């Protein structure tokens, strides 16, 4: 999923804090060796948590000062590439794991955290295992979770469901039956922002995971492009086009924009019954349709496929965001800062800011401090109980593959290619 979504991880967060800048634009060459710990952050309303962590760090360290340098979201990845290649890299930086840091790993620019975890076993034990796992590249840990979870969920309009006398889907057949029901009611079954094609990727992700299991995409992420020829990918592509033919997304989805709010508005206005979207959809609805968000916005997990090999409790999306450390030979200060990410003060800041933490055993913190305990608890338990949490394909893969892959998914939804052609096209990407 594209970078700007990282800033919408938590319900209510966008309402509670205004975006602020902290002097500098990241990558100023500050070093722990010369008394400054440079922490490069994605600039948004959620960064207040990391800035508070820096204040606590500085209160406990006399000889070194943590400086959080925020970079505007639209230019974050480009700025990061620039500073990492300039010899003025930050000591620590925000990232999405997976493909977002793979090139830095290949250039041996990042600190492998195996030794750090051996010396500090509580660091690994503090986090939900499926989320912590997403901080690995080639089975080596390079990231420590710094933000809340961002699973893809199925949102629905409770009033529209009540009017139709139906319940949220638990199986794929339930989902297909609902498509027919809502079409008869004159309601688009699923809102889809097809003009923002990463929204279509979510459907493929869940279908491939449910049909073939976590290992199918893991093979692709590990560099084997023939993994695209797994039967689960073709079947998922066929199911997508079956949904299109059934009218599941209406007739105009290709011109509906998610980033401009059009898809979310279809759900809140009752013109669509359901919307498959990341957990940040809650905060989007709260900001744009507060009464609907508080009274009629329902949420559930993606339905099971009884004949599939995947675990029905598995989730996809952005597990979280991570801190990675540049390998400068001295990591003591960086490790001290990383320890903040699972401290009670840090986790409470996150929860109060509307995020759902990636730390284990956080139910009590959520109940006591979340602006919406019911929603946060549902999301937390969904992620906690997931055997796997698959990183969004366009974040897991290198940019050179991810961008044309999303284009191929868009063509699949628009029926510009057949399912077989889709498989051939993505398998050819290198």
TrEMBL record:
Pfam families in the cross-refs: SBP_bac_1
UniProt entry tagged with the keyword Signal: yes
Coiled coil: none
Residues of the signal peptide: 1-23
Keywords: Signal
Classification via InterPro entries: Bact_solute-bd_prot1, SBP
Protein name: ABC transporter substrate-binding protein
